[in-house]
Amino acid sequence: MATITEVAERAGVSIKTVSRVMNNYEHISPRTREKVQQAMRELNYAPSSVARQLRTGDNRSIGMLYGDPSSGYQARLNHAVLKACSDARRYLAVELFDEVSSEWRPQVEAFLDRTKVKNLILVPPMCDSSELHDLLSERGVQFALISPSRAVSGASSIAMDDRLAAMEMTQHLIGLGHKRIGHIGGDEAHVATLLRRQGYEEALTRGLLGRPERSLVESGGFSFKEALDCADRMLTSDNRPTAIFAANDEMAAAVVMTANRLGLSVPGDLSVAGFDDTPISQTIWPELTTVAQPFEAIAREAVKMIDEGAGNASGISSTRVLPHKLVIRESTGLAPQ
After folding, report:
1. pLDDT tens, position by position, 43-96
2. Which CATH fold would you assign to the domain 4-47?
3. Residue 313 above 50 pLDDT?
4. How many CB atoms lie within 10 A of CB 240?
5. Any bridge partners for residue 244, and if so which?
6. The CATH number of the domain covering residues in 58-160+295-323
7. Which residues on adjacent β-strands are paired with residue 322?
8. Class assignment of domain 162-293?
9. 218, 187, 148, 87: CA torsion to nearest 10
10. How many whole angstroms separate alpha carbon 285 and alpha carbon 56?
11. Contact present, 126 and 104 (Cβ < 8 Å)
12. How far apart are CA 169 and CA 284, in angstroms?
């Protein structure tokens, strides 16, 4: 395959001139432009669409910023968006982002300057930042939101019903005869944490079990390590729960590990349920009962929203709610007698 250097040599011009011709600079003489284009035809030269995109920002790329790429949720979502972008003949630019830093604005501006992206998909908790929305609007970058806590004027968003999913999972545990059901919540900065806690409590109320005791509710920050401590406190208490519903699969896996360390059988002594249906849910034993998020559908909808404009000048917001599914596996069973 020919290179830009070979095109420049064939046309008798500099590499910079070839680049200017490819990028349609105005101040190139018709004779020089024709020489370069003739050389490109003779050498069958096809410039890299990715490299050209990074130079010109031609709207084919989509950017994403992640605070914790090691999490199961973000890994699954990233893979799903990669596939959706490939199917739509788009490119995905991904970068680590310190979402708790007060210096977040330079991080975002550097990303936009370097990649030239004109489209972003924002995930929690960044999808809820009004300041970030304003910055992107100032830069002419359109964005689609995944699971925001509220509607954003002029923006399109995709979500699933976290509250309903958590309520259904807790009702599943109640249906197995469990009356003492613990809950390990996620990062308080994520609206999903609140919604999943609300669904858990609503199921208890509907099941006539009342509000949970303080010892039955812990905050694990969506972290495996933090959830180990939460599970230890719950399972070594005088009146331990017979089931624990964790707000993501990593924390549920930490509960299973803690139960094993304490000599408790899962699900014989303790039923465990998670949320997200990430890879860890099927790589531990017993496999986790969990809520399956529609990652592939979320990614396709986000890319479709970018294609459709991801917003409108009238300021009307739109949200598409996608269905979830309970996946019942071996980690949940009848309450011990």
Report:
1. 888 665 555 554 545 578 899 988 765 678 888 898 999 999 999 988 899 888
2. 434 Repressor (Amino-terminal Domain) (1.10.260)
3. no
4. 19
5. 182, 272
6. 3.40.50.2300
7. 160
8. alpha beta
9. -110
10. 50
11. no
12. 20
Nearest alpha-carbon partner for 169 in 331, 295, 296, 336: 331
Nearest Cα to Cα of residue 237 among 217, 208, 207, 257 = 217
277: left (phi over 0), alpha (psi -120 to 50) or beta: left
Position 19 pLDDT exceeds 80: no
Beta carbons within 8 Å of 162's beta carbon, 6+ residues apart: 147, 191, 192, 195, 196, 199
> Which residue's entry shows tokens 């923006």?
155
DSSP-derived 3-state class of residue 52: helix
Q: Using an 8 Å Cβ cutoff, are 271 and 178 in contact? A: yes
Q: Where are the domains of the chain?
A: 4-47, 58-160+295-323, 162-293
pLDDT band with cut points at 50, 70 and 90 for residue 15: confident
State the chain's mean pLDDT as an integer: 88
Where are the alpha helices (H) located in the chain, listed in sequence order? 4-11, 15-22, 30-43, 49-56, 72-87, 104-115, 130-138, 162-175, 191-206, 224-235, 249-261, 280-283, 295-308
* Alpha carbon distance 100, 310 (integer Å): 26
Helix (H, G, I), strand (E, B) or coil at 2: coil
- Better pLDDT: 149 or 71: 149
162-293 has the same fold as 4-47:
no
Residue range 129-142, pLDDT digits in tens: 888 888 888 888 98
d(CA 18, CA 15): 5
Closest CA to 273 of 287, 258, 294, 257: 287
**If we measure between CA atoms, which residue out of 293, 242, 229 comes closest to residue 272?**
242
